[in-house]
Amino acid sequence: MPQQTYRHNTRLAGFLDDVGSFFDGMGNTESVSSELVEEIDGVYTGSKRIITIPAKSMKAGGLRLYCNLYLMGLQNTPEKNCWKASQSDNSEVNLRYCDLSGSIIIRFTDDGITVDRLGSSPSMKYLAHESMILNGFLDEIDMIVNGNDIAEENRLLTLVDSDAIDKARDAVSFG
Which one of 51, 93, 119, 146 has the fewest beta carbons within 10 angstroms of its own beta carbon? Predict the structure, then answer.
């Protein structure tokens, strides 16, 4: 009996070698360009940084108030009671999703704005709704940064990189 088990294991190993040979060329990176994406931990344990928007200058109080009012207005977007907004301190706004699979944490610091996702496995519905919220938020930030009728020195936010908002949009799940 032990000899039959040994032969069975040898055949299985041979089969797995053949399967491995079949897939050998599929991981070839010479013809396929790929981008290494670095995952950055967010400010809280278990959170991941989604967006970083570096600021050249920021009027933190006014920007925070403007964004807080905008985000508070999104609590029923796109469905009634799907988000619950709260402010844990003067530097951040938290939007908790109704199925509790994830939260958006938006922080305003001297260096800029960061957006983190808290939740190890957010639902697909959460990810779709998060994308809607963050794209709207980025539209508001874009309006603040590129407002034509406001002198640059009077704007609530000016950016280090002019394409920082576009880069942020690329990081949104369903952007």
Answer: 146
